């Protein structure tokens, strides 16, 4: 199919009686140059030293625009799609050649891990994610301890700003801390609203996530999430007020309780979380 053709996309949706659902944030990437650039970035990112045999999970493939970009690279793909109309199209297009997990990724990926005798560690997780979905999916991947070495997502610019936010900036948040304790987050390139159909109201960007060698385990990740969410619930207040239940841990880490949460680096929040586990 011609993913550059808005008229062909419209005709296919009409033929299949599919109405786009606002709650799913469905915007198709119709710029072939950007799709090629995104596909090449994913190809290069998963070409790890020594080779890796894990699958590449794609979240929200829609009509298969990114999927078709990745297939020539002979990557072992697994698709996660929530829209039943899109699932029907994908199955008609790919048959049994690509496994498709039907439903909300937040439900289907835990079910997949429980279903398989040897739970897989995906080589990469990729996708074009709407803002509200990204804010739930990315931290869930981190908190569940899926140790995928690489993630590549096309996201709204505001979400990329939050994920890559540095301490002391307005974009720095509990989400920034949780993700950055596990991954180095790199903004790779911007994508204009004109590259999509329907056209979104905001611009987008592609973010590359590379796993840190000192990535916390699942238990520590959940403690980091709890501590940071508590701290940032009132981000303008000092830690003595926001983390009053964690003052012994702050002292053990040599962190002043007079600081604000936005002044702490991700590594310092990780240290507090470790102290919590050592001093329950």
What does this structure look like?
The chain is of the alpha/beta class and 280 residues long. It folds into 2 domains: 6-211, Rossmann fold, CATH 3.40.50; 219-278, Orthogonal Bundle (Helicase, Ruva Protein, domain 3), CATH 1.10.8.100. Helix content is 43%, strand content 16%. The strands form 2 sheets. The protein has a 7-stranded mixed sheet, with helices on both faces. It has a two-stranded antiparallel sheet with strand order 1-8. Strand 5 (124-128), helix 6 (131-143) and strand 6 (150-156) form a beta-alpha-beta unit. The longest helix is centred in the first third of the chain and has 15 residues, at 32-46. The termini are far apart. The mean pLDDT is 93.
DSSP summary, beta strand count: 9
Unreliable residue stretches: none
CATH third-level topology of the largest domain: Rossmann fold
- Integer-rounded radius of gyration: 20 Å
Number of domains: 2
Main β sheet profile: 7 strands, mixed
| Number of DSSP helical runs | 12
Backbone structural class: alpha/beta
If strands are numbered along the chain, what order do they take across the biggest sheet? 4-3-2-5-6-9-7
Shape: elongated
First-last Cα distance: 57 Å
Identify the CATH homologous superfamily of the largest domain.
Vaccinia Virus protein VP39
Return the average pLDDT rounded to an integer. Answer: 93
Give the name of the CATH architecture of the largest domain.
Answer: 3-Layer(aba) Sandwich
